[in-house]
Amino acid sequence: MASSSKPPLDDTRRTTGSPKMKTRAENAKDTLCRNVTIYGRCRYEDKGCAFNHDPLKVNTANQADNKKRFNVDSPSFTPSILSSNGTPVPKKSTTISPKAASAAPFQPRVSVASRSNTSTPTGRTELGSADWTVADVQEFVPQGFDGAHVSALQGNGNGIHTSASFDPFVTTSTPLSATGGVGSVSTNPYTHDPTGALTGGAFFANGGGFQQPVQYHLYAPIGPHNQNTLAYQRNVHDLFLANDFREELQKKSAATLQTLPNTTLPAQVDYFHSLVPLDLSHQKNAATFGYPSWVYKAQSSKDGNFYALRRLEGFRLTNEKAIRSVQAWKRVCSGSIVTIHDAFTSRSFQDSSLIFVTDYHPLSKTLAEQHLGAGNRFQGRQNNTHIPEQILWGYMTQIANALKTLHSNSLAARVLEASKVLLTGKNRIRLNGCAILDVVQFDSQRTVADLQRQDLVNFGQLMVTLGANSPNVMHNPTKAMEHFTRAYSPQLKNSVFWLLNGLQKDQDRTIDVFITGISSQLMSTFDSALHLDDQLTSDLSRELENGRLVRLMTKLNFINERPEYEHDRQWAETGERYFLKIFRDYVFHQVDNSGDAVVDLGHVLSCLNKLDAGSDEKITLISRDEQSCFIVSYKEVKKALESSFQALMKPTRRAH
Ligand SMILES: Nc1ncnc2c1ncn2[C@@H]1O[C@H](COP(=O)(O)OP(=O)(O)OP(=O)(O)O)[C@@H](O)[C@H]1O
């Protein structure tokens, strides 16, 4: 590591004795005294004040300069009020606003300006253009959202950025309110709203809003897409997960974490707590299981995971063996069936209930809700759209997959209807509510083979119902079949007809035979699944670096400027800790030629990646007072980071 001979100094942002300031002081006579500007006259005019007290004598160049900004040569550092065009307000109306009074009087904009990663120290040479300026008093704008207006990243892969001609980050800073964002306090979506007033007292996880609705759009970098980027330039959108996918995942995560305060539901059901109802209607419906059933999301106190609990209201267990039949279901492992974890009876609901514990799939819908208008307030008036043939084939192959697993394990689905098939992702379905009839109809005399044949018929009927977009179409089978024949290809129609004839006691009527018959469709569904897999892998790779970089930034922030070591020169102002501190400035606090902050994610990512890799590339680090300069490699910074972090973790360190 090479460094200048001068030892590192304290972080003295307001260095009063800089050569630049002296030069300016010599020119004081050309500068209009600030007291004249603010108060109309200067009390020290005849007592040695070096500044000009006659506005008429101030040369035009200086006047123009004064219009732009106050400078350090002014005798008084108290900011005055400027009119909208930047000129001082006449004395009569001059008062110092509370905002201006409480503002930090001066903020130096030190031009480190070493944006290129060469070892040439360029920072000092830029001083000519650097100015001490009165801190602008700005309204608070939530930080982080600015990223939403960032359009593109400049980055050429080797960390060299050419900011002069094109800085995509200097785009419009649209006020938040303009995007319907969080401009005012009253609409802050993160404000806790215990009354539910803002959300309309959301109730159902699937149907209503959330107690504290998350404003997904605030996460979305909705800045303008720049079409004219060069091959090496990257857009922020290129670096992170696609917005719609991220939003979908975020919504699912919000639904999973949703809680329902002041609920009348039991606080605890066996080893589950935090129940949230998932049903869209309060109507008791015993049609499927013979008992009214309710579905809740709940958290397990055993493993902390979220599950769906299906409660069969009023069920009394008379035969111990009945509930043991669930054991076989717990072993079923299929991507097309909602996994069953447990079943038990409970009195937590003040009745005798049977509870099934299954996987929870946030924000899923049933096929009945999706295609048949179930759960819709305007049910009946709903104009359901025709399901395209390819989607119907997709459903068919997934259900065939589920039945194949069940039948080869000597089980039968028994429940195969649109309200008990869950749509858990785009065109992705799973059989739900299986295993229940094995418990509640344990004593039924039907053989497994018989139940499996019934599965095939139910399968066919489900397809016809979906194809007709009408829940009750099977009341008139002939009409239903006519419709199906008209709407779909002969291959699909023949497959469905084959299923509907499944009750014939024919050796050839098994799910295996059916699967052989639709093998070409299986291939096309399989191919779609492979494409989706590729897509997800590529999406995942975009997020690859995030975790690593967050950990690195966490380490840096653990070390830098710890308040308890503020006056401990050994910790903060010497050796490795010191250049870690100015490395942070190098990464995050650079300014450009005109003293404006460089907000370049490409630069930050490039620096952090090099730091993490411990590259041999050297960079020039310049102290804030510009009195010291280090030429260090990323490798050395990495070593310093590691040893500082180790030192931080030693509990005895402070004793020294
Ligand atoms: N495992 C699960 N994970 C997430 N949500 C589920 C799960 N099981 C059911 N749901 C949701 O719970 C709601 C109620 O499901 P249910 O199976 O009772 O259907 P339903 O439309 O109410 O039918 P029914 O009128 O026969 O009760 C549906 O919106 C469904 O999407």
From TrEMBL:
Residue ranges annotated for the C3H1-type domain, each copy included: 27-56
Coiled coil regions, renumbered to chain: 520-558
Zinc finger (C3H1-type): 27-56
InterPro entries for the chain: Kinase-like_dom_sf, PAN3, Pan3_CK, Prot_kinase_dom, Znf_CCCH
Disordered: annotated segments: 1-26, 79-127
Main localization category: cytoplasm
Region (Knob domain) residue spans: 559-656
One Pfam family in the UniProt entry: Pan3_CK
Keyword Disulfide bond (UniProt): no
Cellular location(s): Cytoplasm
GO CC aspect terms: P-body; PAN complex
GO biological process, one term: mRNA processing
Keyword annotations: ATP-binding, Coiled coil, Cytoplasm, Metal-binding, mRNA processing, Nucleotide-binding, Zinc, Zinc-finger
PROSITE patterns: PROTEIN_KINASE_DOM, ZF_C3H1
GO molecular function: ATP binding; poly(A) binding; protein kinase activity; zinc ion binding
Source taxon at top rank: Eukaryota
Quaternary structure (record): Homodimer. Forms a heterotrimer with a catalytic subunit PAN2 to form the poly(A)-nuclease (PAN) deadenylation complex. Interacts (via PAM-2 motif) with poly(A)-binding protein PAB1 (via PABC domain), conferring substrate specificity of the enzyme complex.
Protein family: Belongs to the protein kinase superfamily. PAN3 family.
Free-text function comment from the UniProt entry: Regulatory subunit of the poly(A)-nuclease (PAN) deadenylation complex, one of two cytoplasmic mRNA deadenylases involved in mRNA turnover. PAN specifically shortens poly(A) tails of RNA and the activity is stimulated by poly(A)-binding protein PAB1. PAN deadenylation is followed by rapid degradation of the shortened mRNA tails by the CCR4-NOT complex. Deadenylated mRNAs are then degraded by two alternative mechanisms, namely exosome-mediated 3'-5' exonucleolytic degradation, or deadenlyation-dependent mRNA decaping and subsequent 5'-3' exonucleolytic degradation by XRN1.
Domain notes: The pseudokinase domain, the coiled-coil (CC), and C-terminal knob domain (CK) form a structural unit (PKC) that forms an extensive high-affinity interaction surface for PAN2. Contains a pseudokinase domain. The protein kinase domain is predicted to be catalytically inactive because some of the residues important for catalytic activity are substituted and it lacks the equivalent of the binding site for a peptide substrate. However, it has retained an ATP-binding site and ATP-binding is required for mRNA degradation, stimulating the activity of the PAN2 nuclease in vitro.
Protein's UniProt name: PAN2-PAN3 deadenylation complex subunit PAN3
Gene: PAN3
